[in-house]
Amino acid sequence: MSRIGKMPIALPAKVELEVSKSNLVTVKGPKGTLKQQIDPDITVAVEDGQINVSRPTDQKRHRALHGLYRSLLANMVQGVSEGYTAKLELVGVGYKLEPKDGNVLFTLGYSHPIEMALPAEVKFETKMEKGSPPMLILNSFDKQLLGSVCAKIRSFRTPEPYKGKGIRFQGEVIRRKAGKTSGKK
């Protein structure tokens, strides 16, 4: 058995889980509703306030899907009950961000500012404190969507290894390289 796949998922009291005939799992909670299509071979059952995911055989494909769908369901349950948060820092001289009509406007050292419209499921707030880099705090109940939005924002100016400038997650350590050395003897 898969070590991850066989672990049951605790279902909080305020979260509802429905499995349709076509194996479409719907999770409803106070933060929102998420849906995930599960492979027909994988079985999802709710027993005693716990979600159990099982597979029919020990084929390599079934073993892989077993742990995958258990992790996806656990992320969905946590998302609709508690939600997820990501914090991005803008490290660099003159790097700024500001909210503009529900969108975020980034000034990242290019000749033009970058305006990004965020999905409705992702809420954001900006934090500008003196002595620390500007920070963008993103909240969502969908972990996959939050990760893709963070990756898109980070792609505007990825952290570079020489000075460490760019957009990075809070607490992320950038591996630094030594710069050029003098060639004179």
Topology readout:
Elements: E1 9-10, E2 16-19, E3 24-28, E4 33-37, E5 43-47, E6 50-54, H1 60-81, E7 84-91, E8 96-100, E9 103-107, E10 114-117, E11 123-127, E12 135-140, H2 143-155, E13 166-169
Antiparallel strand pairs: 1-6, 2-3, 3-4, 5-6, 7-12, 7-13, 8-9, 9-10, 11-12
Summarize the structure.
This protein has 185 residues and is of the alpha+beta class.
Give the helix/strand class: alpha+beta
What's the overall geometry?
elongated
Give the termini distance in whole angstroms: 64 Å
Low-confidence stretches: none
Give the H and E element order: EEEEEEHEEEEEEHE
Helix count equals 2
Rg, Å, rounded = 22 Å
Strand order of the largest sheet: 11-12-7-13
Q: Specify the biggest β-sheet.
A: 4 strands, antiparallel
Mean pLDDT: 92
In terms of DSSP E residues, the strand content is 25-35%
How many DSSP-defined strands?
13
Query: What percent of the residues sit in helical stretches (DSSP H or I)?
Result: 10-25%
